[in-house]
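Shapes recur. One chain:

:::
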Amino acid sequence: MIHQSFDTNNTKNLQQILIIYSSVGILVISALVAIAGILPLAYRLRQAEEQNLVFAVETRKLVVEEYLAKAKDVTAQISSRTRLRLVLEAFNRGEVELAEFLQVSQEPLIDALRQADEVVGITRLDRNNTPRINVGMAIPSDLLLIPDPTASGVVVGERVELAGEFYLVLGSPVFSPQQERLGTDVVLYSLAGLENLVADYQGLGDTGEMVLVAEREDRLELLFNLRDGSRLKSATLATAFQEALSGTSGLLNPGGNEPVVAFSFLTDTPWAIAVQMQSAELYKPLQEQLAWIVLVIVGLSALGTGGLVVLLRPLANRTVTQSEILTKQVETNQTLLSAQEMTLKQQARKNEFIQGALQQMDELKESAQQVASFAAQAMEIAHEALQLVNQGLGAIAQTQGEIEALQTTVAEISREIQSLSSNTRQITTITDLVRELADQTNMLALNAAIEAVRAGEQGRGFTVVAAEIRKLADRSRQSVAQINQEVGNIRTAIGVMSTTAVGGNKQVKTSGEQTEIMAEVFAQIQQAIDEVTRNSQEISQSTQAQAQTIQQVVAAIAEIKKT
């Protein structure tokens, strides 16, 4: 009885060890597979979040550059007014007195001030850079921006603060048709609209913000305060602006408590732009996605382990039952042999030997049958897995076809964008011709007005006609400016669409590469399952042959026992 209890306990311990080791093995393999899959995924998701920050700074860069381009266009339009240019040219030659110069220039400058809401002050200088007339807010003499003699267009100056408001000083040289420098227009341009753009934190979360900085006297100066009202204080942000002012773009991620900063330079300005965000907030979506993935993997591993335990437990129970039956048979045979031992020692030894051989053969036979059964179950599972892998390969092939079609569509979109860009350049050429025609018409109207004035009463009616023609020319020039502005907006949108199309093409290409990798992995899995199926077939055949051999040995021993 003690021996029987000892064997039963050993069998049950073996059952528990088998279940525990199998469960731990599945958990370890699941953990390794999860780590191998999550680490590359986490790296790519991290790169995607950083790329979103780079895209944010490039988008805001386009907005700021468009704002500055508008300021330069408005200033250039003021300097290109023919009437103002002619009277300035006449004043420089001494043909017009200062009083007449002021009287003729006052109304057009006020009209220019009214047409542009952002323009708050205009000061016109003669060819000696002497201020002659000012409309709107007075510009201090130390802030007057005089472009270099070699400058051919509008020059952007420094940001200034007057009466608690921020303004931008721009200088535009005034040229004659022969490209002679006649004077300079200094414009005071309000930065309230740009400040509102900087304060727009949409899409930047709770810690993200756009920062503009200018370089003044070898030091960095913030154009507007940071989100919390402070000045430049981050070492990472300072480093980013130094690189941006040198004409580079990029991203800095020093780690720790320092923010992640994407930076870029602004064309034709001493300014730089950056978008910063705390790393904890930037990578929060990444961490949430990884947490969900880990939870799913842990859940699937737990379900797999539980299923294995459920499958192994009945098999282990059957093993325990068979062991108990065999133990009882051995005890019965031992009792019979003990009863005959006193009378037939030699026969008892012979029977004991034969009975032991029969017992071992029976155990081998049952073990072989169980192994054959396990091999058959493994073949069925491998067959089902092979079907699933074949279905996965079919789905991957279909996905690859759809990705190729999508890549073709993205290429077509890029070609249409290039065609649209060519059309906008043709529109710009036409508007330039219309603007030149308007300038010539305005000049002719001015000359006609001057001649009408000289004609006295007889030319009064012609003066009215000349004034109407001049107004029509001004409206034509304003329409051309608006068309050019809209064409600029279309070009900006085309640039953004082109960049997006290129990024989409790269993403489609990356998805195709990932699909090919998945197809290779499925092919490797299919090969492994085929190998498992062949091994299971060989095991099944071997165990069947072993069972037949054991049956023959049992029959031979039984014949020996009868004799």
About this structure: The chain is about 70% helix and 10% strand. The longest strand covers residues 165-175. Residues 231 and 555 are 99 Å apart (CA to CA).
